[in-house]
Specification:
Elements lengths: L1 H27 L8 H35 L5 H27 L8 H24 L17 H10 L8
Bound molecules: protoporphyrin IX containing FE (HEM).
Amino acid sequence: MTTLLKFIHLAAIAVWSGGLIVLPFLFRQRVGLVAGPELFRLHRFVRFIYVGMASPAAFIAIASGTALIFLQTTFLEWFSLKMVLVALMVMLHVVAALTLAHLFEPGRSFGRGAYLALTTAYLVLITAIIWVVLAKPVIDSDQFAAALFTPGGLGQFVREILGETRIPMP
Ligand code: HEM
């Protein structure tokens, strides 16, 4: 069961990561195109990569990863670090959606700087996540947050950083 889930997890991650890495390149192809068959074809293709491939793969990767938590002993610091990096990857997945939502409006384009920044961010994040999962670095959270893995420890850690900020209860 674990092997099958890991297979599904890794296959979904390959499709998700590949989709994210190729998207900025496809956004860049918008430059110089005016309304016409070529622009509509690019729009359809980019939408297919985002809506038909990368997003379902992200959903499957997250669902299979969540199931794996219950089968593997992952209650260690490296896994928390992985989750922080995955959260950033999900946020950048949304950045691609926000870009796509307006890119094909008249007069829009995708600059070289944005192309390089987004591609680099995806590559760095994906490489970092894969390194963390495969190297499983030993991180001693006692050194910077002694109570992190005790019940309520995360809240205490955040309060130590932010001060005694509390959400007012009605
Ligand atoms: C919410 C999202 C995710 C969750 C909950 C999750 C969870 C997990 C868990 C529990 C494992 C098994 C760990 C172990 O072997 O001890 C695993 C394996 C793995 N995950 Fe994820 N994962 C997620 C997303 C990702 C992403 C985005 C990547 C890469 C970009 C990734 C890459 C890997 C790899 C390479 C393995 C295999 C590690 C091995 O077999 O040694 N995961 N994941």
